Amino acid sequence: MTRMPRLSVVLATDVYDTVRPVVAALLRQRLAAEIELVIVLPASAQGGVPREELNAFGHTQVVAVDSMEELATARVAGIRAASAPIVFIGETHTYADEGWAEALLAPFDEQWTAVVPAIDNANPISAASWAAYLFDYARWGPSRSAGEMSDPLVYNTAYRRSALLALGDRLPDALDPHQEVMWPLLWGSGHRALFAPAARIAHLNVGLLGWLLQEKFCSGVLLGMGRSHRWPLWRRLVYLLASPLIPIVLLARVARDARPPVPASLPAGTIPALVLCALAKTLGEVVGYLGVVLPARAAQLTHIEIHKLQYSGQDADARTPLAGARAPRRASR
User: Fold this and answer.
1) Helix axes of 209-230 and 270-289: crossing angle, nearest 10 degrees
2) Is 30 exposed, middle or buried (0-12, 13-18, 19+ CB in 10 A)?
3) Which is the most buried residue in 21, 64, 156, 235, by most CB within 10 A?
4) Summary mean pLDDT of the chain
């Protein structure tokens, strides 16, 4: 009799090769036999999944979707197809550390709905990559203390599948971080989230400044567009009038959240890159608050998200291990 997997990992991608190094890190987990891998990709790419390489997993599913333009919709398909009681919503550029699966699953013996792992910088090679990591993930670094959290992530988080399915038709919006509804919906139903620093993943970041600013601008546009649909006009006007203060608020959050293993001496240019990130995101938000619709920015951000390695700034030699069986090493302590 086949044993039901304890954990389903949902990976939405364009082709299997994009997530091959992510899968390699999962295959090295001691609990690989208790993991279900759920790969979501376009129907035209189904034939490229080497099922014979995935036999160490307890179960593998390939879920076909029409398009990867809407990552949230693709991930919903994976969650609905999953069979484990716990689902981890992974990305094409996050790599599980040793012991990740055990540390992630252990808290679910208690009444937590979601568990967030600690996040390391997978490519600490440039000022841009450090700026990207600090701007987006510093508050979830491995030095943060374990405990209940009020600021859980949407992705790179494990959830009780039943809680996600209970969201029904709201689930696609909940899985879009720019809609900002996942945790208001879950908290409204009494759910709670835990930060578990013993469960660690390494996140690959954009490592080239030009592309990093594009990413932040696109993210700001989508955030502003989403808020412009939800917020009344008066609130949008308040944010527009206060927009010169937004970069200061964003940078203050980075300063508050930065903690070891961030090195004492960051690469030259990290601080200016952070300032430019804050300005780029603010500019994008302002565009969105003004009601300007830029659908091409959503497509660009999706491409960056799926193909983060292409934007990481690593040369061909550095990419070679990622194309095979080895995930990038996290930053040294």
Assistant:
1) 30
2) exposed
3) 21
4) 91
